[in-house]
Amino acid sequence: MTNSKLTAVSALSLAVAGLGASAQAEDLTLCWAAWDPANALVELSKEFEAQSGHSMNFEFIPWPNFADRMLNELNSGGNLCDLLIGDSQWIGGGAENGHYVKLNDFFDAEGISMGDFADATVYAYSTWPKGTPNYYALPAMGDANGWFYRKDWFEREDIRAAFKDATGRELAEPKTQKELLEIAQFFQEREIDGQTVYGAAIFTERGSEGITMGVTGALYPWGFKYENTPGSYDMEGAVNSPEAVEALEFYKEFYETATPPGYTNSYMGESLDAFKSGQVAMAMNWFAFFPGLYADPNTGGDKIDFFVNPPQNQAGSTLGGQGISVVAYSDKQDAALEYIKWFADPEVQQKWWDLGGYSAHNAVLESPTFKDSAPFAGDFLEAMGAVQDFWQEPAYAELLLAMQKRIHDYVVADQGTAKEALDKLIQDWTETFEDEGKL
Amino acid sequence: MTQAPITRAAEATPPTVARKIRGLSDRAIAWIFVGPTIFLLLAINIFPLIWTINLSFTNFRANRPNREVEYVGLRNYERILTDTDIWLNMQATAHFLFWTILLQVLIGFALAYLINKKFKGNDLWTTIIVLPMMLSPAVVGNFWKFLYQPQIGLFNYIIAFFTGRDPSSFEMLGQVTLAPWSIVIVDTWMWTPFVMLICLAGLRSIPDYIYEAAEIDRASKWRQFWTITVPMVMPFLMLAVLFRGIENFKMFDLVVQLTGGGPGSTTELTSINLKREAFEKWRTGYASAYAIILFVTVFGLASIYVKALNKVKER
């Protein structure tokens, strides 16, 4: 072989090798909501990029538009997202409508066991039909609705004395829902350092899911059930049980007597604003925001503390959080599955928690150091032990919007009674399930 | 000598093409010109309308393309027309339409009447008055949300100043009795200038000699206003009412920004409800029937109105 031929063959070999390498490296797009944990995931994913050679792009949508935008994307068969961290309620639609790739074979092949993740998160974020070993997502971000409060106010002697005078007990983290309301009412329109403050910021948003996520924080501790028998869709007597009516009346009383003026349409952002501006003594919000709240220079650190949604008849917290799925319309599914494999690694999960994400991996949650790793870590574990989620049916959006309307009509617009609102909700849901052919 | 462009174009046309065109009738040439427009009209307007009518008799859901579609006859129409919640949405829409149009016509005409007078700074005032309608509804919605804020909102403070009430004692966007008025106020603030401009065009189209003749006949200003100004501006005013009526029947963005349809469903106008049914609940068949009912309502009312408008013009 002459030198020139040798050079040509070598060059061709290099070119082919280079072509092979570049064909394997993909540009992956991960879609999620725009919030604090998403920034942590960007940071975490740099390690994946370095290891795999794939590059990661992110499409983060603000929460109020997240469901609309992403469900439209899925329904239209769009391939904007290769990976989607979708809300827990989407799992039914994602599975039944063929939007998500079923992951069982992949998990088996890669030795990823769902037994390594917290049971509640696997049930809520991964399985469809519920509780069956059919997996459409890997638990990505454990979350629940919890509470935070002005610890510095709770520790002030003058406020503690006033509270004792008013209620006959010590001011402390509430142990029941009724104590929670009592504390919130105590702070309502109280003068603190020359400012009028209010009891608590709760969810009352009408347009997407806000008031439903808020009111279930009262309904679940009272013992609310969606069905008398799971899977039977028999809602009469469950959805409108006396306990559910009492819980709904409680939430309305909370809204009317212990929230700032103008809180008629507020959700996550408004809750955070109210707390950070020193307007409220307590606020409800998702645990996902707690790392950011704790780090806040004005109202974080020593001034803040956290507690799990208080029980009433039983423990109960509203489930948040999401699983990560591979979108069936993606043409980069192999690379997307590589990401899931990497993300499932216990070491990566530990880094995920360290950066501010809520790992659902048992290796992280069951670590002896976990409870002390953040001031809200213990509360998070407690909350995840008693979480309950909304319907996860393919028609979940219809079910959710019906509840938004009925609850907002009663709580904020003061129309009808709690029993009437829940009765109408059953009618709406029955119509939906009849249309679905499930009743 | 330079040739006219048409001559140059004729000479540049290849003989084969020219022969073909020469053989066409005027009607055929007209069809060649209007054909593409008609095709687009059919593709973009008529076909979707027919398709929507077809879907309105089915249980189709756009988010379940694989599900079997069943024809359900008039069930969607029956459900809509017997749904008390939808009638409440219709009432909310009617309240919004009636008051916005009434206020915009009264204030718009009054402003146009004033602006029509010659005075110093006339142009500047016209520009200032029309500014709100140049803003995006999303901006206006957010802007007024702050103004209506019970604790820091300027609107509440102004009302409190005149009434002596505590500014945070009422919530324009949060109270069932006030929320419908809050959206009326914002829409009136934003779109009164539009009505004013149309009225101004009407006022400026009245020839001066008519007023001069009336002066000679010693008609009072009041009589001139009712017998000359109002009748001659009326077609313009009716046109403004038609435009605002159609626009406000479709009102969505501004109200979503302000109240999201709340509190409860107090300000949930039909367009907001329709959007929820179609693109949030994905009840495509049901939403199609809903859209057809709204279309027939608007089309019917607009047709009656246009006939009335033509009669006024003929007078």
TrEMBL record, chain A:
Signal peptide, first to last residue: 1-25
Subcellular localization, as worded in the UniProt entry: Periplasm
Primary location recorded for the protein, binned into one broad class: periplasm
InterPro entries for this protein: Bact_solute-bd_prot1, SBP
GO cellular component: periplasmic space
Domain of life: Bacteria
Keywords, alphabetical: Signal, Transport
Keyword Transport in record: yes
Family per record: Belongs to the bacterial solute-binding protein 1 family.
Protein name: ABC transporter substrate-binding protein
From TrEMBL, chain B:
Annotated transmembrane regions: 28-51, 96-115, 124-144, 178-203, 224-246, 287-306
Subcellular locations according to the entry: Cell membrane
Sequence ranges assigned to domain ABC transmembrane type-1 in this UniProt record: 90-305
Top-level lineage group: Bacteria
A GO BP annotation: transmembrane transport
UniProt keyword Transmembrane helix present: yes
Entry keyword set: Membrane, Transmembrane, Transmembrane helix, Transport
Membrane protein topology class: Multi-pass membrane protein
Main location: membrane
GO CC, alphabetical: plasma membrane
Coiled coil feature spans: none
Family the entry assigns: Belongs to the binding-protein-dependent transport system permease family.
Name the UniProt record assigns to this protein: ABC transporter permease
Organism the protein comes from: Roseobacter cerasinus
